[in-house]
Amino acid sequence: MEVLREKVEEEEAAEREEAAEQAEHAEKMERMVRLAEVSKEERILTQDELRDLEKKMMAVEIPIPAERPIINKAIIDVSKLPPSYTTNSPKEEHLLQVADNFSRQYSHLCPDRVPLFLYPLNECEVPKFVSTTLRPTLMPYPELYNWDSCAQFVSDFLTMVPLLDPLKPPLYLYSSTTVLKRQKGNCFDFSTLLCSMLIGSGYDAYCVNGYGSLDLCLMDLTREVCPLTVKAKEVVKKKEKVSPKKYAVKPPRDLTSRFEQEQEDKRQQEIQALEKKRLREEEEHLLEAEKSKPDPLHGLRVHSWVLVLAGKREVPECFFIDPLTARSYSTKDDHFLGIESLWNHRNYWVNMQDCWNCCKDLVFDLGDPVRWEYMLLGSDKPYLSLTEDYDEGMDNDDDVEYLGKEDEDKSFDMPPSWVAQIEITPEEFETRCPNGKKVIQYKRAQVEKWAPYLNNNGLVCRLTTYEDLQCTKGLEIKEWYQNREDMLELRHINRTTGLHVDYFKPGHPQALQVHSYKSMLPEMDRVMEFYEMAREDGLIKREETPMTMTEYYGGRSDFLSYRHINFGPRIKKLTQNSAESNPRPMVKITERFSRNPEKPADEDVAERVFLITEERIQLRYHCRDDYITASKREFLRRTEVDSKGNKINMTPDMCISFEVEPMEHTKKLLYQYKTMIHLKNEEKLSRHQAWESELEVLEILKLREEEEAAHTLTISIYDTKRNEKSKEYREAMERVLHEEHLQQVETQLDYLAPFLAQLSPGEKLTRWQAVRLKDECLSDFKQRLIDKANLIQARFEKETQELQKKQQWYQENQVTLSPEDEDLYLSYCSQAMFRIRILEQRLNRHKEMAPLKYLALEEKLYKDPRLVEFLKVFV
Amino acid sequence: MSWPYDSMQLKVMDDNMLKVAVGEQGPQEEAGRLAKQEDILFKDVLSLQLDFQNILHIDNLWQFENLQKLQLNNNIIERIEGLENLTHLVWLDLSFNNIEAIEGLDTLVNLEDLSLSNNRISKIDSLDALVKLQVLSLGNNQIGNIMNVIYLRQFTCLQTLSLAGNPIAEAEDYKMFIYAYLPDLVYLDFRHIDEQAAKVAKIKHQYNIDELKHREAQMQAQLEDEQGQREKLAEHKLAFIEHLDGSFLFESLYAEDMEGNKLSYLPGVGEFLEAYKDKFVIICLNIFEYGLKQQEKRKIELDTFNECMQEAILENQEQGKLKVAKFEERHLQCLNAIREETELSNIEKKLIECSDDINELFNMLMMLEMQLVEQLEETINMFERNITDLVGLFVENVQSLMAQCRDLENHHHEKVLETAINYLEKILKGEMDKDLPDDVRALFVDKDTIVNAVGASHDIHLLKIDNREDELVTGINSWCTHLVDKIHKDEIMRNRKRVKEITQYIGHMQSELDNLECGDIID
């Protein structure tokens, strides 16, 4: 092995001079190529011009800040980090050597390529190999099991800091734990964290070091359409073509001219084509305006992202995830301009394929050593495709190196990650964004996100869409809410029309589902939709305009499906009684019923119209099964002037009816009279219901206003952190437990302890000592009892004296006292009396209890295991 | 007959009495006035109360077709009669009468509440028709046999029963017995049945009830079995191949064939017969299966036809409805405009417009109907052709199969004849077996006799086969003609009905317009 390495080194040394020259040349060439790329659109430049440009470019180059600011150090307390952060284990050292060797060989073999991103410094200034910085972790949250939610979390949780030098990979790569603590990071930190999580949850994920577009590197989404605004494409249902049945009737002969039809079609098509063309042109125009200015550093900006390979976790094909925005891209996307290298927790691969056509032609077959140069041999090779033809001639020179590497690395495995366990606390997981708030700019849209419970009205997300690219003219606002007591879920405000639409989750006290309105004032245009299953009356929808109200019902036992009320203008009341409401007079009530299968169609009313001002009632019945016309009946009540309620003189001209199938019993006046009386009652009921509906609208509006003002949030009973009630309960439980514990300690109190302590330790008790011990203990207890009694007595006397004094004072000054003083005195008296009484009681109780307590202690002492054998004799 | 009551008090249920009762119990006030003015028809009456009238015979109730509630309590009725026509009766009160037996309730299938308390009934029966019975009151009667209660097990809806005041109610076990045998009962003698008590009772009578249940289940199963068989047979009859799924036809060949039966005693004939039977049965089964298949085909054909007809009619109806709805909307606007118009010339112009509209609607609806008639006509003709073809094919195939049967018969006949002649020769030669019965031996007198006998047997067989074939062919042909006739007739009826409906509607609209004209002119 040594020999081989020497040989390699010799070769290297020999080639070094050559290489130096070549490198210079190659560098120039490459720059030229890149410049050419930049100015591709212009024209092909001459050599001189190129040189000029090169010089200019050198001058233009962005001033690079000296080093990473040292402020970070203040934030990261290096001393508290585990030792693996500050030192390298021997295995890691070895790995670094291997990597160093690999890097050297690489730069020797491919002198025109930028140095590899292999072992950046960590937060403790210790070089660490990138693969060991990955710490595969499976998060304990089921929400973080899939790649999209993981990416979303990473993108939400961290704030993006652009790379210090956009053209070079960073010098430092922090551990994910530090990044999580700081909630800040560059694209490498993002992708390292995301990759750790994805590998942990079973994906075949890799960190990629490559080149991205300007938008990608700066997390600029202003040219992207906001995913929230994209409407789900309506799935066009293909109508199943029913094959004509054997006996299907032939359609009636079409007598229109076919020629005319064709001409008409042609004309229409022309118009459509014109319209389409116009639209397309407009679109193109718009696109032009939206297009970003060409980026002078296009293709040079370093970026890091995550590659997920197909295979594991049922991933059907490879794709990229941009960790900054959490969006997934196809591997052929225009934003990704090239790949230098990629790594996972086991190995490191260098891309040997040409990236002239972005990443579109790359083959992600990591087992193919021609396309992907691996660093460690011992690790698993995911896809060794045997079909690739191996170009012997080209690799002849490298054989030696390969051999050397193989021999060296075969026994070598990637050391375990030096990073500590990645942990995300539930609070952090819930808060997500730094400080719980995040704002993202999209094309013509802005999304603001908040953590739940951060806003006291429950707002968690707001999407504002704009008409123009500069985001000045708002079009509409969508606000998502969570945990609201009034179950409000989404509010949609259209700025142009002023229309508000509130969407509710099931559970609103009035079963409200959707409420769209322009103003909260009653009797204006509004639509309320309800969860009809939750309502007793089965109301589905209520639409209002200033003069009408329309209600739709479903699932009612009386089959009412529709009620429409027309209001007339308000009548001015002569008596100005403000307390009495002045409802709008109803002019017409139209009610429709669905078919009641239990009644014959001729008796099942389909529609009834109460023309209240005209005193007419119109009925239309349901159509019979085989008929096309329906029965109708109209009642005139003009003659009902009788003041005595129901007394109507029924005459045949009061009812005009048309019957599809004339029936005998309906001709009778009696039947008509009964129907009319019934209808009169129904009319009253309908009017009442309409009035109630109006009231209900007012009530709902009031309730909504109250809810809007209060906007209380609900807290789940499982949310132990926020639920005050459960917190109180828990604390109470803890207190009780604590007290119980104290009591227990007390009961176990050793009476003899202080007396035993007087004896020298280890000394054996003699009988005499035991007896003395007992006597001492008892006498001591007796003393305590007496002391206590005295104490209570003293207090009692003191209180009594004070009371007497006060009484005396009162009697002396009784005449001059103000009522307040008298009150004060009286209250004092009663309190004092109370205290005296209590003290008296305590004293009496003490007197009663003291002998018993004394006896109890004595008995206890006799039974004490330490004394029992000595005292037995006495008993 | 000696009247137990004073004859002065006796009343006869005649027309007058009923009229008075109806008048008294009918609508009051304004409605009453109208009712009187128009005369109430007995068939419109829903409820009638005839208590404390000293009625002896129930009579004259046949007109009350729609009566739902009838009270005849506190009379001196002795027999339940004259209630046959009151099929809509739900509530019947016959308490406090002198009834001795339950009878005459066989048509009251809707009855839910029956009161027969305070009578002289001694046996519960004749209630089988009352499948909806919920409440049965039999208090204060003379029912003496507790086992009689088991009769009430068949009424699954029965919830309330009263038997207090009967001799059986004095028995110690009375309540327990009823709880156990009528587990669905909720109230007994106007008291709610305690669940606990019911449980105890059930345990007590467990054994008997299980036995009873077992018997009932057996009966049920048997009934279902019979029902299933009947249904199957009906299905086969529909396919005109009943009794062909076995040896039924073959056995019928020999059922009336004396000679054939006698001949089967001949040695060798039995074997022929067996072979013949097997083959015959196979052909029968072929016919049977073919028939079922054809029946299925015909059914599908008919179903698709009906479905398509229905679809076409419905679509046409929808169009018609749409036209009518559109017209009505326009018409209403027109009428309103006329009402508001003041100038006479304008009114007239509008009226003419309206009437034109009506005419246009009429034309449109009629055109739709004509179109439908044409379409349906074509379809019906096509169906007719197809179904006749199907039937023809079926008949043809069955005939060819039947011909096979005949061939078999001929073949068998020849064999039997040959055997018989051989045997005759043997007999004549004197080599005869002793074991032949006398009547069979009687055939073997001479050649003519035996040939005649065999021939007669053969003729009978052929006749039977021919009959079966004829039956099948005529059956299916008549079915076919009936079907086609019915379809044609239905279509004509439908067309007439629709035309009538249209003319009626148009007539109504026109007359309404005319009335309006008159009214306006008067104004």
Radius of gyration of chain B: 38 Å
Hey, roughly how much beta strand do the residues of chain B contain?
A: under 5%
Q: Cα distance, first to last residue of chain B?
A: 75 Å
Overall geometry of chain B comes to flat
Strand line-up across the major sheet of chain A: 10-11-12-13-14-15-16-17-18-19-20-21-22-23-24-25
- Beta-strand residue percentage of chain A: 15-25%
Nearest-integer average pLDDT of chain B? 86
Total helices of chain A: the number is 20
Spatial shape of chain A: flat
Helix content of chain B: 55-70%
Main sheet characteristics of chain B? 8 strands, mixed
Number of strands of chain B: 8
Average the pLDDT over all residues of chain A and give the rounded result. Answer: 79
Total strands of chain A: 25
What order do the helices and strands of chain B follow? Answer: HHEEEEEEHEEHHHHHHHH
Low-confidence stretches of chain B: none
Structural overview:
Chain A: Residues 763-870 form the Dynein regulatory complex subunit 7 C-terminal domain. Chain A: Residues 16-27 have a biased composition (Basic and acidic residues). Chain A: Belongs to the DRC7 family. The complex is a heterodimer of chains A (875) and B (523). Chain A contains 20 helices and 25 strands. Chain A has a 16-stranded antiparallel sheet, covered by helices on one side. In chain A, strands 6-5-4-3-7-8-9 form a seven-stranded antiparallel sheet. Chain A has a two-stranded parallel ribbon with strand order 1-2. Chain A starts with a helix and ends with a helix. In chain B, 62% of the residues lie in helices and 4% in strands. Chain B contains eleven helices and eight strands. Chain A binds chain B through residues 245-250, 252, 623, 626-629, 646-650, 656, 658, 660, 665, 668-670, 673-674, 677, and chain B through 27, 29-31, 34-35, 37-38, 44, 301, 304-305, 307-309, 311-313, 317, 320-321, 323-324, 365, 371, 375-376, 378-379, 382-383, 494, 497-498, 501-502, 504-505, 508, 512.
